[in-house]
Design a protein that fits this description.
Order of helices and strands: HHHEEHEHHEHEEHEHEHEHEEH
CATH topology of the largest domain: D-Maltodextrin-Binding Protein, domain 2
Shape: rod-shaped
Number of helices: 12
CATH architecture of the largest domain: 3-Layer(aba) Sandwich
Number of strands: 11
Largest sheet: 9 strands, mixed
Radius of gyration: 32 Å
Oligomer: single chain
CATH class of the largest domain: Alpha Beta
Strand content: 15-25%
Length: 308
């Protein structure tokens, strides 16, 4: 017997007529009757007795239904899982990110997403830029978030936002009194920032070089959020992105605009050959919305008039 035949048997037992079973299953009454006769022929024993124009199941029929009930429960569970997948209520998202974003915005996005979609499994890998791009290429991550990525043949990039360069410093620092901080203003200051050996450090160095100056941080870090943390702990000034500045803010620190034209493209990277899942698309949307909120806050802070 197959599941459809068992379903017909169950409907006839429930309604005690082939007419009622046919209406329930959206079939014709003759089809129901023919199926029951076919099952009885195959099994070699009757399934119903006619009593007062109604069909009364035999003991054998009731035993068959009892044994088959787990099959119906499994079918219902599979159908529910399919519906959940279709509606994006279950699944998984594998995320990779550089450290600035793993600290500056992703924790809040993941926490909110987990509350809204508790049956979605989320994983986060924090890596160097090259490694972040590689795990997406290899299919280990569904999406990666990073600043100013390299072009990669196998990847497509979705623009999330553009982060401006800002200066983070103590409110007592002379830079805090400036409406905007130039490379010249930073040249003689104790500065902590990304090392020139990485892509972001090279971009910072280029902005200094355009003014005829050398970019020489006293303390070098690989990631901008680490530079922001050093300033938060009470040492020096940092030239960093807005989200890293946001993550390190505390009373007594100020954010000032960077006078040179410098920004970092924030992107989501995915495989060109793979259509992003509903969960991935929804997560990118949530990420973009949270970034916009964080940027609005830090930009409002950076545009406050300097205290003279």
């Amino acid at each position: 017997m197959n599941l459809r035949q068992l379903e017909i048997l169950r409907a006839v037992v429930q309604y005690r007529t082939t007419v009622g079973a046919a209406e329930r299953l959206g079939m014709s009454q003759p089809s129901i009757s023919n199926t029951i006769r076919h099952i009885e022929t195959v099994l070699g024993f009757p399934l119903f007795e006619r009593v007062s124009n109604r069909l009364s199941p035999t003991e054998e029929a009731l035993i068959l239904l009892e044994e088959s009930e787990p099959l119906f429960l499994l079918r219902d569970a599979v159908n529910q899982r399919a519906a959940d997948l279709r509606m994006g209520r279950i699944g998984r998202i594998r995320i990779a990110s550089t450290a600035e974003l793993s600290e500056g915005v992703l924790p809040r996005v993941i926490a909110d997403y987990a509350r809204d979609y508790p049956r979605i499994q989320v994983s986060l890998e924090t890596r160097l830029l090259d490694s972040v791009l590689q795990v997406v290429e290899n299919g280990v991550a569904d999406v990666a978030f990073m600043l100013s990525p390299y072009e990669r043949q196998a990847l497509t990039y979705e623009k999330v936002d553009e982060l401006r360069a800002v200066v983070l410093c103590d409110e007592s620092d002379p830079l805090a009194k400036l409406d905007a901080v130039s490379p010249k203003d930073l040249a003689e200051r104790p500065m902590v920032g990304p090392q020139v050996a990485n892509r972001i450090g090279l971009m910072l160095a280029d902005s200094f070089r355009a003014q005829g100056l050398d970019y020489r941080p006293t303390i070098e870090t690989r990631f901008m959020n680490a530079a922001a943390r050093v300033v938060r702990e009470g040492w020096g000034v940092a030239l960093i992105d807005e989200l890293s500045a946001y993550s390190a803010m505390r009373p007594g620190l100020v954010v000032r605009p960077y006078a040179a034209e410098l920004s970092f493209g924030l992107s989501a990277a995915m495989l060109k050959t793979k259509t992003p899942s509903r969960q991935t698309q929804r997560f990118i949307k949530a990420f973009r919305e949270r970034v916009a909120l964080r940027l609005a806050e830090v930009r409002a802070e950076s545009q406050r008039p300097a205290q003279v």
